[in-house]
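Throughout our pipeline, every protein is held as a single compact record rather than as scattered files. The remainder of this section carries one protein's record, kept here as part of the documentation.

===
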Amino acid sequence: MSNKIGGEYFSLSYEEVLRAVESLGVRTTGLCYPLGSLENRVYEVELEDGRRMVPKFYRPGRHSEAT
C-alpha cells in the first residue's frame, strides 16, 4: 500500500504492538508472539500480572462505513 497507514500496518513491529498494549494502562513482560491470521495481525502478549492479551490489528480498508 502506498498510504502511510497501510505502510505502518505492513511493517508493524513487536515494539509497536507492545506500546499499543501498554497504552491501555497495562504493563507487559515484553513477550509478544505472532498468531496465525490470513488478513490481520494478531499477537499474544504476556502481561506482568501473568495474564495474556490477544491484540488484533485489522488490515487497512477491511472495515468501511458502507459495510
